[in-house]
Amino acid sequence: MKKIPRGVAALAACAAAAAALTACGGSGGEDGSSDSLTVATMTLPQSLDPKDAAGSAMPFFQAAYDTLVKREPDGTYSPMLATKWEYGEDRTELTLTLRDDVKFDDGTPFDASAVKANMERFAKGGGGMAKTLADVEKIEVADAAHVVLHLKQPNPAMLFYLSDAAGLMANPARFDDAGDPLKTKPDGTGPYDLDSGKTAIGTKWTYTADTGYWGTKLPYKELTFRYFDNETAIVNGLKTGQVDAAVLQTANAQARVEKDPGVETKKQEFDFQGILLFDRGGEIAPALAEPKVRQALNYAIDRKTMLDKIRQGRGEATSQIFGTESVAFQEELDSYYSYDPAKAKRLLKEAGYADGFELKLPRISAIVPDALASSLQTYFEAIGVELTWDDMDQSAVRRIFTDREYPGMVMNMGQSANDWVAIGELVLPSTFNFFGTTDGTVQKLLPQIAGTAAKDAEAQLHELNRHLVEEAWFVPFYRLSYLHVSDGGVTIEPQSGMALPSIYNYAPAG
Fold this sequence. Notes:
13 helices, four-stranded mixed β-sheet
């Protein structure tokens, strides 16, 4: 389904329970590669068309599609379909030099025209990540091996996006085919082909290695993703040898495997969990327009106790949205908001809400379990804020982001090493700032940060982070500690910016 050299919303949908598993093996092949790798996942992709790619589904796409830029486990970038890249002086032009020896299966060359066709289709495709190319004003084909991205303004996250969903390259010859075949029949330049005979869409996806792959071949001849709707089933599959690798997010699942001698584990802090306050302008909940009210919500919660009781201490309490790998991160901001309900009450009184107010938030049980829902209600009730939950399943998320019915929600948000990724998702007008609220300090700092490399904008990034914390744009709880687990026959390298590792990060142990 791809080349042969001539001369890859945040809210994963949950569906039916996984079907019965078949055992998988990791025995070595004659050429030194292993036969198969089976990865358990709770992500259920609705499509394998790159224009629909997003978030935790990326490994499904990486198997069949290469990206323009490869993101290494530590978050740095290296060549893939683009061999090098260069910004112009004002950082509004990004020139990519492309490989000239890659073709799709039908002979369609991978070239600058293919890049232009893919990126324009992605930007117009309406997928959850289409917004990542909003700053791309024009895509210029300089020649077959060079494409120039003309940006409306500097965007320090552009290379990150080109190593992610926006950088996936499909065969343009398939774009006009009837029935949108790419949804179930990917056609890219990646290291694997989807094996339709072994794949059951919605349950398992099996890929076989492409013997004509242009790049470095991966160590497994066969790669399978198996869908589960709960982590108990994943742990059972791991212990019975039915899956080789997985990432566990819940404390109970992690506790089940940590002392098992047959399970190899590796920790990674990735997401932060907290309340994203969308309505800082007070359109739905007028009280949230007052910074002192938002500060009161932060002082109302006991992060350390929540972490100990709900997460069994697996993570780090924090008051900031930026992760430890980012330039903006400041260790002292983790403890900026202490547990101080008396101060929270004083702030509410000063803001004109001495009698409290009502706060209604959506609840998706996969994100907000009973213990968390109850804890937040108790903490907020103690300062006079009546928190009510509106239970919904993940199919109703349009009520949050499209219909804009709620002033905020509890979310798990990935923390990238790239500061502008977090800024793009949470600070700029975007999916998680759909009211577009801002202020003078943010408006002053963002152009300064965008116009230079992150390492040269440390002072401005620190100022922005502190401002967001002091003005209580959000109510973070803690960074979550995830656990990468394997059957001992697989080594796993966690991936910066992703909960599920890239497919390039698995290798046979030893």
